[in-house]
Specification:
disordered N terminus; 8-stranded mixed β-sheet; about 525 residues; FAD dependent oxidoreductase; Rieske Iron-sulfur Protein; FAD/NAD(P)-binding domain; about 25% helix; alpha+beta
Length: about 525
């Protein structure tokens, strides 16, 4: 469905460099933590899993304190394409092969229940979250995967999902088959977070923004340490995308993946459904609004790669824009952004007690790009575990699970990490090889044992930081499309001044002046 004649074009310099959802007005501010507080439950992270758990617990009468490093609605959830769906690519046939039909059904039930839960919360909210039901399609353009499509339909149906086989999708003339799920959904994720936060406070919970959790002392009770005060609690929920307190080796059990989204203005957005092309890299398509009259913006996502290992990210944005123009008559590029997800070695999230020696400390991570439903399911599971109530899906997400194939993937991924660690330290250029940096250019330089990341901004000012990731000592790589330093080992990301954006690192990159 090639479109060869785009009209007025908005180039990279004028397109907004943040998620479409940031057009939503911010929610009310919450004060930072300034002193020690006592709570029944401390929740670290105000994304979907953290706020869902906090709300469930607060409504059950628990004293809940939520700490958030930035502000509500400024993290990973707000940079999602926000498909609220149990359709996660060609997922269910693989789950049956790896774990059996019971686990596949449990995963399906948890995600379908999450859609219903989100709908109920949206209906009860005072904020318009843009929630609406619509079908979802996952399709392929590869003739050799026709049998895969048929197997996925069968596995999904046996898992109790509203799946059907279709031959065509409106966004691709090259599709050779697709799986359709009925009664899926989409929404504005930032508005939904604001609605959850409002409900948490209305239920008696507390939220502390601009409060970075720096350490966790486990015991009876636990103590979450922050930069200005502590939260003392009987139970702790670590819901920070990647667990900032890693008591279970999660850095070695999942792979960081980076992906990109462009928001394009088109004449006729596909508002009847959302779409996902199963390929490497994948292609995701959804309308931003409910109709062309609402806001004729289409969000096109894809170009995924392992964090820190994808080459020029600017070129990935360019390729994604070209793909958008191949599918639609693009009038302009309105916004562009990237996001990061963590893929577990066996494709199931980790939700439950963090580890065998972390009684009362819970984790929710590894959503593999499907955090709207998996994160909701995860928050509900953790709330039930803390309340000592049965949850029919807890075993599916249990972090203590083990499979032989996952062990093999674990070994491979960590061998790749070791190769990156050793190779980068050996191959970075020495300081005497430094050339003059152009504007908006960066490089990593080595001078003996010192390794420095240097970036020259648009005004010609130079920003120099340590290139050594504070998590485990790997060397960061420059991300030219987002102007960030990204760690190829475990996915920590930092802005060009060294400020941590995403974990597992909890400390900033040291600036040159810190030496």
């Amino acid at each position: 469905m090639s479109r060869d004649t785009p009209s007025t074009e908005r180039n990279e310099s004028t397109a907004e460099r943040d998620a479409y959802w940031f057009r939503t007005a911010s929610g009310p501010p919450y004060d930072p933590l300034e002193t020690d507080v006592r709570a029944d439950v401390a929740v670290v992270g105000a994304g979907i899993p953290g706020l869902t758990a906090a709300l469930e617990l607060a409504e059950a009468g628990r004293d809940v304190a939520v700490v958030e490093r930035e502000r509500v609605g400024e993290g990973v959830t707000a940079r999602s394409s926000a498909k609220v769906t149990s359709q996660h690519g060609f997922r269910y046939a693989g789950l049956v092969d790896e774990f059996g039909e019971e686990t596949a059904r449990g995963y399906a039930e948890a995600n379908e229940a999450a859609i219903d839960y989100v709908e109920r919360r949206c209906e009860a909210a005072d904020i318009d979250t843009g929630f609406r039901r619509l079908p979802a399609y996952v399709y392929t353009e590869d003739d050799s995967k026709r049998e895969t499509v048929e197997s996925e339909v069968e596995a999904a149906r046996r898992a109790g999902l509203p799946a059907s086989l279709v031959e065509e999708v409106t966004v691709s003339e090259d599709a050779v088959g697709a799986v359709r799920f009925d009664d899926q959904a989409q929404f504005d994720p930032r508005a939904y977070l604001f609605a959850l936060a409002d409900a948490v406070v209305d239920a008696g919970g507390e939220i502390f923004e601009r409060t970075r959790a720096t350490d966790l002392d486990t015991g009876a009770p636990h103590r979450v340490r922050t930069e200005r005060g502590n939260v003392v609690a009987d139970d702790v929920v670590v819901a920070t995308h990647f667990p900032v307190f890693d008591r279970g080796g999660y850095f070695a059990r999942q792979t960081p993946k980076h992906s990109f989204v462009v928001g394009v203005r088109v004449a006729d957005p596909p508002t009847e459904a959302h779409f996902y092309r199963e390929s490497e890299p994948y292609l995701s398509i959804r309308s931003a609004g409910a109709s062309a009259d609402d806001d004729p913006i289409v969000l096109v996502g894809g170009q995924n790669h392992q964090t820190g290992k994808g080459g020029s990210t600017s070129q990935r944005y360019e390729r994604l824009e070209r793909q958008a123009r191949e599918h639609f008559e693009v009038e302009s590029v309105e916004c562009r952004w990237s996001t990061q997800d963590f893929t577990p070695v066996d494709d199931l999230p980790y939700v439950g007690e963090m580890g065998p020696v972390s009684d009362g400390v819970y984790v929710a991570t590894g959503f593999d790009g499907w955090g709207m439903t998996n994160g909701t399911a995860g928050g509900r599971i953790i709330a039930d575990l803390i309340r000592d109530e049965p949850n029919p899906h807890a075993d599916v997400f249990d972090p203590s699970r083990f499979t032989p194939s996952a062990a093999g993937d674990f070994v491979k991924e960590n061998a790749d990490v070791a190769a990156s660690f050793v190779g980068d330290w050996l191959t970075k250029p020495r300081a005497e090889e430094m050339r003059n940096l152009d504007v908006d250019e960066a490089t990593v330089l080595r001078d003996g044992d010192d390794v420095c990341g240097v970036y020259r901004d648009a005004d010609g000012d130079v920003h120099a930081v340590s290139a050594v990731c504070p998590h485990m000592g790997c060397l960061v790589e420059w991300n030219d499309g987002d102007r960030t330093w990204d760690c190829p080992c475990h996915g920590s990301r930092f802005d060009y001044e060294g400020g941590v954006i995403d974990g597992p690192a909890v400390e900033d990159l040291a600036s040159e002046s810190d030496d």
